[in-house]
Structure formats: structure tokens, C-alpha cells
Specification:
The protein is α+β, with helices and mostly antiparallel strands. It has eleven helices and six strands. The longest helix has 22 residues.
């Protein structure tokens, strides 16, 4: 008998949480808004004393073989996304990512100390992992690891704010590549340099509003609700991008960018 995605979702939580090493499970996003096939995927973040060995994980998933399909084990191992297994729930791609709790604690402390002020490894934002954990939906929390971590992350550290603001404002002071692109009227080179500048601008304005930068996704939605920002910030960013796509308007785009950065710098001094 066909089971709903919600029912299978609950079965996965029940089975995975029965693994001895597993202490906490969470998902990014709301439990009540699971995607349909083709609309997105499900990411289970699973925190353990030790990573369960592959045979133990495989056995648990095999017990669900009438509810899930396309099981793939150890798609990746270690790194930013832990140890990852893959399944499908009613056509929805689902990732089970296992992390060692001691590694997570050490990494979070490093991020909060300002060790990683910028993106690394092909647009992975360490600060985004903190943002995810701050808002993670807890599904299982035997020793309240996730609950205590969420409480810790609730207050944005002042020291982190200062380090991020200083770092990204400093990066925004270097306009050499953008100036060269404008002088050459090189649209593609301009957009390459502009993307880097906008990235630093976004990370600075998120820090200024004491919000962990999640990634480049939905940036304008966040900016729209921020209290500290240049006037018409989102609209001006879009104008800068649009004007920069035309050789004849690149200089205007650049001037608007300088104006926006200048206002951000003034706001950071308040």
C-alpha cells in the first residue's frame, strides 16, 4: 500500500534514531512543508557520537525497502556535508548526512570566532552552516544537543560581527578589477568583478543586521526586512546588475555601486 511522504518521513526518523550512535536529527526547513517530487529535496542532518558504520546504516535503510527506493550508500564521506547516504521517498531526493558531534562543536566554535570570514571551497559559506543550525527543525534530540546549540546561536556574537564587517568592508575598498572592466568596456569581466563585490556587500549587510548569512539564495527577501541598510537597497542592487549588462551603462552601474558601498560604510560606523 502506498504511503504518503509524511508517513515515510516519520518512518525514516524512527529507524535512524534507533541507531545507538545517533543522538540528534534535524532538517533545514519546516517539517510541515515537505516537497513533492521535482520541487526540492529533503536533507536530514544526523548528529552522532561516532559515525555509524556503513553496514549498520545500510541495514536500517534496508528495513524500509518497501517505503523507499534507490538506496545509495556513502555518496560522500567527510568534508562539509559529513558522511552522506541517499534515498528516494515517493520520488523526492533525500539525503541522510551523518556528522560527529565533537567535530560539529569544534567547527561552530571556529566559525563564531571569525576563522572563516568568507566563502570557501566553491561557494560554501561556513557562516551559512551556523545559520542553518540556528533555525534547524529538531526531529530527535536525545541529549538536547541541538536544543542547546540553537540557544547558543540565538545571540549573534559582537566579536564575530566586527571581524566580518572589517573583513568585507576592506574587500569592498579594492575596486581595481571593476575599474579596469569599466575602462575596457568589458561586460563579462565587469560581471565577474561585480559578483565578487556584491558577495562582500551581502555578507557585510547580513553581519550588520546580526543575521548569519545563509548563502546567496533569497538574499533580497532578507534585505527587504532588514532594519539597517542603505535606502532602497534591494532595488539599487538590481539596478546595478541590470545596467552593468550593457556596455553603454557600465559606468553608471559602477557609480551606483560606489554610492551603495559608501552608504554601507557609513552605516557600519554607527
Amino acid at each position: 500500500m502506498h504511503k504518503s511522504t509524511e508517513k515515510v518521513f516519520e518512518s525514516v526518523i524512527e529507524k535512524v534514531s534507533s541507531i545507538t550512535e545517533v543522538k540528534s536529527i534535524g532538517i533545514s526547513g519546516a517539517k510541515s512543508q515537505l516537497p513533492a517530487a521535482g520541487e526540492g529535496d529533503i536533507d536530514f542532518f544526523i548528529y552522532c557520537d561516532e559515525i555509524p558504520d556503513i553496514e549498520k546504516r545500510k541495514k536500517i535503510l534496508s528495513n524500509l525497502d518497501t517505503e523507499i527506493c534507490n538506496i545509495k550508500m556513502n555518496i560522500f564521506e567527510g568534508g562539509h556535508w559529513g558522511t552522506g547516504d541517499f534515498i528516494e521517498i515517493n520520488g523526492v531526493e533525500t539525503w541522510l548526512m551523518f556528522f560527529k558531534i565533537t567535530d560539529v562543536i569544534r567547527n561552530i566554535d571556529e566559525i563564531l570566532s571569525g576563522k572563516y570570514p568568507d566563502k570557501i571551497d566553491n561557494y560554501y559559506y561556513p557562516i551559512g552552516r551556523v545559520g542553518m543550525l540556528e533555525k534547524i527543525t529538531i526531529l530527535y534530540d536525545k541529549n538536547e544537543f541541538l536544543k542547546s546549540l540553537k540557544e547558543k546561536l540565538r545571540i549573534y556574537p559582537e566579536a564575530l560581527l566586527k571581524k566580518l564587517i572589517d573583513y568585507h568592508i576592506d574587500k569592498l575598498s579594492d575596486m581595481e578589477d571593476i575599474e579596469r572592466a569599466v575602462y575596457r568596456k568589458d561586460v563579462l569581466f565587469y560581471h565577474f568583478a561585480l559578483d565578487i563585490a556584491i558577495d562582500h556587500f551581502l555578507q557585510a549587510i547580513f553581519a550588520l543586521n546580526k543575521t548569519y548569512f545563509p548563502s546567496r539564495k533569497r538574499s533580497l527577501s532578507f534585505i527587504n526586512i532588514f532594519e539597517i541598510k542603505p535606502n532602497y537597497c534591494g532595488e539599487r542592487i538590481l539596478d546595478i546588475i541590470q545596467l552593468g549588462s550593457q556596455e553603454s551603462n557600465m559606468k553608471t552601474s559602477y557609480e551606483l555601486l560606489l554610492s551603495l558601498i559608501s552608504e554601507l560604510i557609513e552605516l557600519s560606523k554607527m
